[in-house]
């Protein structure tokens, strides 16, 4: 999540901090010290984070802008908690929050998912002595409880400001390191941005799920088969070099100090599984399914940012045993070589995916809906059209007739059966002399059967039963002695 | 998970008065008029209140089952002088075909039945009883949760389609439901198969014929008790009822509407002309989440539909490109149901999608900029509305993978790993498929990956055998879980073939990267190759006795005493370098990828001590220690100790020389 750092630069921030026998600091100096620590941490361990710095008092000034817009944000507010007085002060704004008109809404809650961290260059007692703490808490509440207030412990000094920012770093900016594993092939990786815990069903299963640090590949699937699946989030998977002591050397990105450069060059030259995997995924047009935890999966694939640059990316599926209906249950995916017959075909012409659901959806099974009169009229017309082309269209005629019959029986619409029977009888009388003799037999047979069904007599009105074409001398069925 | 919409009980009144006509006439004899003069057209037909109730409730179920094929269950009950329960909460009963068959068996209400003994009350009581019955999903959740089983809630909704006499009559029906819930909850408390109802929503729909005054007034949702809320809708039969139930299904299941506009379709009559059509789809409302969050809902072209009650978001059809397979960044996928399922535009669109094509959808914006926000695509006969991410990504412009660790290495075995991925593709197995060891298919997939990667050098210059066509049959077989006698024979043939190649002194694809001159001599090349082959096979020797036989075959075939003598001589000359080799060997082993390969390590553990000194033969000083050196130990095992040392040294020390030279 990109970060906006808001620095309170009002006059109260220049209040000196009294520390005996040492250099005199202002609260502003402490704030700057903490922020420097935060930015340095990001520069080394959280390199791809986008940050912006805004200084404000009663006015505000954007010191370092974002170059783009985002849909989520983390906001770090650095202040001494002196809320000011009168119009425009936080105290006044919060008191009048309900009286605001639509076009001048209070900025909180933000119109995007966000976390608000308030870093107080003050200790808790000081803030509680006035209503400052209450007001700051109200800010967090307005943001839907998303965020936290940090205060300094002990005397206001460099050490305690460090410890406060240290807590923020642990909470919000600790890098996510993991081991990517494909059988015995492994690579140490950083996953960026770090995957946040996910809660799926709060009622039955309220415990948030976290991505485990062992990312185990379970197998591979074609991009066409996985077919643009919905994902919770996307993350870069960056291989990292881990030295013997277990310290991270870095992700090998450019712009390092000289010292780091040589180490990174070394890291660049030793083969890494991520690079191999990325290359083959890209060439083959496949994804690797990766297990993120119990009953939780994701996929690894090559993501091209531009023509030249591409990267190994990981997307997380919804936690659960069946995140993608067209793959079925994840635990039931096994090696294709275990199947009795190669599900991909000997020449790769087949695929076991997508999985077909047991029942077809309404739009795939020619359902009958007569809610609009036109639906009913169309169905009757279809029957009449085919009736005029008997006996060539005998099969279609009976298919449409039976479809209408079934629906009419289910809807208890016997009146319709009688009407259609009459229509067919009339059609029979209107047959031209040139008509095939079979046409008349089929029409009167069909009309009679519909009438019988409309009586509700279970012998003729069974749902699963169909009206079958009458066997005549002319229908070529060999039943010469029938009629 | 177990919200009110988990269980829906439909109660449809089947009493004699429901046989009454809805008084909306439908002409079915329209097109024949023009053709035949003198023919008296047939009288129009009209549906009964019952038929209207059934077809609208079926439409409600059709949309529901399209959008939620699982988890949202319907129990369909018909009430007259008795109760007809047409299906159960079981998932297999949840489809319109079964319900239609059951409805056909019930037939329309009998107008001659005694109205005194008929009532919708029987059905309402049955609905409450049914809501107490545990569903498969509730059962499964309770079983898996065990001690927290009480988190599994029991809520439900009763939709009652009836013709009520008056507001008092409605009140009586509500009171009856409330009483029954209280009674049934007492019963349910003492049963394993029943659950007390925590929350029930009663939706009473009073249906009356066209042209009549309603005797029942509409009433908004009202809490009758902590467990029961009730609302009353008084609706004329026919299309009014249809649109009411369409609105209800959207409210009840959090649906929203999207209209796909500008769909080009060929005209039926004139095949060479095309016109643009609109198709309205229903789906979960989260598919509009981005619009709602950004406050764009109105900007996105939402308009009121004819019902005047619900809004639809308009998205524009983008003519699809050729069938390119692309992985879109998609944040959600929601099943759809067409509002007008068998209209021509709807079926054209759905058939197009069912045939495997995907359509991108564009969000109309005031500014005129083009934003692709959604995609329609079918998977396994189900159509989904995919939500594509249209906000800026936080992952824009990341460093390329070639700038990171391992990014400068250029001879990865990309093609071989591609082949490996194809061999390790996944396929679905039936739910009962668990093997003899009790492993699920996904566990078997992981164990296959483990076997296939026991020895898998990542770069071309690290391996000889995987660059040799002649080794392929053996390499493909040895990783398998079980070998047949025939497989063993194939492996042995591979080995004999290699022996033959060695006898003929065929050249081997040994990497000469980083080495000076022509690289190792021919016999040295073969030794490297045999060692690597042994490493591969040794990694699998524990799998079965047949795997063991393959190793034995290699060991038996590869011994070449005269050549050893020669190497022994060369070895002595370089003995002084031995210490260095040993150090480097250990060092590199730690860093190499083999560190993580526990299995391989295990295989090697026994020989580790003698091994370390000969562990590095570098093909390239830049590449990390190749594994193919380890096989040498195997040789040593067979040889007397002094000999083996001599044997191992030449190439090992060569490696060191190269390395030092380079640094």
Automatic annotation (TrEMBL), chain A:
One cellular component term from this protein's GO annotations in UniProt: integrator complex
Region (Disordered): 247-266, 328-359
An annotated GO BP: snRNA 3'-end processing
Domain of life: Eukaryota
Chain ranges of the Integrator complex subunit 14 beta-barrel domain: 173-320
UniProt keyword list: Nucleus
Domain Integrator complex subunit 14 C-terminal: 368-475
UniProt entry tagged with the keyword Nucleus: yes
Record localization: Nucleus
Domain VWFA: 3-77
InterPro entries assigned to the protein according to its UniProt record, in alphabetical order: INTS14 (IPR039841), IntS14_b-barrel (IPR045814), IntS14_C (IPR046471), VWF_A (IPR002035)
PANTHER family (alphabetical): INTEGRATOR COMPLEX SUBUNIT 14, PTHR13532
Subunit structure: Component of the Integrator complex, composed of core subunits INTS1, INTS2, INTS3, INTS4, INTS5, INTS6, INTS7, INTS8, INTS9/RC74, INTS10, INTS11/CPSF3L, INTS12, INTS13, INTS14 and INTS15. The core complex associates with protein phosphatase 2A subunits PPP2CA and PPP2R1A, to form the Integrator-PP2A (INTAC) complex. INTS14 is part of the tail subcomplex, composed of INTS10, INTS13, INTS14 and INTS15.
Protein name, UniProt field: von Willebrand factor A domain-containing protein 9
Organism: Cyprinus carpio carpio
UniProtKB/TrEMBL annotation, chain B:
Gene Ontology BP terms: cell division; centrosome localization; regulation of mitotic cell cycle
Subcellular location: Cytoplasm; Nucleus
Ranges where the record places region Disordered: 560-663
Biased composition (Basic and acidic residues): 560-621
Chief localisation class: cytoplasm
Pfam families associated with the record: Mat89Bb
Keyword Nucleus belongs to the record: yes
Hydrolase recorded as keyword: no
Residues passing through the membrane, by range: none
Keywords (A to Z) from UniProt: Cell cycle, Cell division, Cytoplasm, Mitosis, Nucleus
UniProt-listed PANTHER family: INTEGRATOR COMPLEX SUBUNIT 13 (PTHR12955:SF1), SARCOMA ANTIGEN NY-SAR-95-RELATED (PTHR12955)
Protein's recorded name: Integrator complex subunit 13
